[in-house]
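Still learning. Show one?

>
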Amino acid sequence: MTNSVFVKPGMSPREIVHNVRNLGAIALTSTGMRDAGQSDYKNRLRIRDLSSLSPHYNEMGLFSSECHGGARWHVGIMNRRESPFDEIALLREKMPNVLLQTLVRETNLWGYRPYPKNIIEHVISRVDIDVWRCFSFLNDVRNMRTVAEVVMKRGRLFQPAIAFTQADWTTNDYFLKLVREIVDLCGGTDEIILCVKDMAGVGSPRRMRSLFDAIKQDFPDLVLQYHRHATDGLALPALLAAAQAGAGIIDVEEDSLTRFYGQAPLLSVASFLEESGINVHLNVKAADGAVQKVREWIRHYEWAESPFKGFDHGVLMHRMPGGAFPSSFEQAQKGGFLHLMPAILKMMSLYNQIVRYFDVTPGSQVTWVTCSGIVNHYDKERGMAGVNHVIDLLTRFVEEKKQDFDAMPPEDQNELLHLFRGAPGDFKNLIIGNYGKLPMGWPADWVYTSCFGEEGREKIAQRHEESPLDAIPDEDLKRLRHELTEQLDRTPNEEEFILYLMHPKDALDLIRFREKYGDAPLVLPTDVWKSGLQKSGDKVEFEYRGVPYSIERVSIGSEHDGVIHAVMKVNNQIRVFKIETPRARKTEIRMAKGMTDIGAPINGTVWRIGNPDRGPVRAGDIVHKGEEIANLEAMKMENAIFAPYDAQITEITVRLNQMVKQEQLLFVLEEVKEQD
């Protein structure tokens, strides 16, 4: 429609909201730089390629570019070796007309656990983002309070998001109550934009028309934005319904990025809305330029696409959000249980009716780890016959008996009472209230017995509904900064400290990688970054800080005593590089066997030995029954390990950041008897 820029960085939230209200057309947010890559490419799209879209974005007339946050933050430091701060700086330079938008998970920010209030305040006050989209997977508006306060105090646009799913309990009245709470929290409708966030893509056209109309009836001045994944195949008619009912902004992505689990295609949506009589604010020529630019480099990411291809209308049942689809399939592939995915999705559809919340991070991880763990347990015990058995058991319980526990035969009751016995720590935290108030109340009492065994009744009594903002004590930031200083053997800068606050282990890995390899992730072309120079004579050319570089492979020697010599031609000068590679060694992995041995409950990474209250534990320390002695990270979830009795630690057999296998020995304990 137009190439005019109607909002840009530096505007106040009030100005931005005013301009959207008076635009006279639907505005668009492009998710091409974040959610497109998360939903279909496991967050592997590199900023070097994505930044090539910037000149087109700068002229496109977008409302914003969602280019930051979510799981992109974590995977960037963990796999792409990119700092989110480098991304912001690069995009600020290349597209000064565009509002940069992030996605934060209320108290979890860009992590997977609730952070204390002082960490949230510290981080948000120092990250240079224009639009802060914030959601709660429990729709607990209280959890957004600190994010809202800091963002609005900074004069940046706060965009609260209500998590949407289509179910009998997610009525218009339910959502309108949330909207009223949000408007009260933010002091009115003049400085916020409200997002309806349909992460799984399950909202039918009729349902979205009804919901958006109901919100506009109650809050006619509230600017609404619709974020919807395309998984069920009905994205375009649902977007049209939302626009007709009052949505002012819609999320889209470049047509050439669209696969199955991200957002709908930009040019297709614009054309469909225009043909339906709705004006769209878009410079089509610039938008087409972005679409064509993607086609120049997207072939380098075929390896990263989800192995589960095709639209999936069954998402209405299992509700796996678009952002979690490819990463879950990747984890299943690596874990050797990709063949179990149909059963896991069916398990999720049944589980969602037993414990009700919104399947978006971290809730999607809780659901995924819990359900995949149950299916894998039955597969290991009894093969596919066991998997089919547990699916049949839950189907009878949920669909036939309507979750009437007493109506199940005694043998089925007994099995249900052990169903969640191996559930991850985050599931346990969820059902006792450590994430906040569940949207439809606590699960049935049998779930607590199933999860905690004899301690089930005690855990029911310990349930609480405080927001993590009120329940988690502040961290000692000086201590954490000192801790990082000791790890690096130098004073960290503020950006490094923030990375460390979010993801300590992976931040350290990134910092050390960049100290060794510099800005290589930002300048090397994607094919070279992934595969290197394959044969003699292969060459890569790039510009770094205004200086052209040329690197050519001459020869690679054989390995001798763990050392390889590589001969390269750098700017036509021969250089020889010594590469040290660890020889393959067979190291014995000790497994937990005896009564005094504490083994790993799952495959994972040891990210803490000890607990936050006590600090690290060492051999010789006395620990008490129920005290956390270690924590494993697996599939982005924490899994705490507790002392089974009062004991002295006689041996710790693992180290921090070590990968361990299920049942691998972690501790040897010696029980401490009470003195008479």
Observations:
- The chain has a mean pLDDT of 92.
- Residues 597-671 form a domain with the OB fold (Dihydrolipoamide Acetyltransferase, E2P) fold (CATH 2.40.50.100).
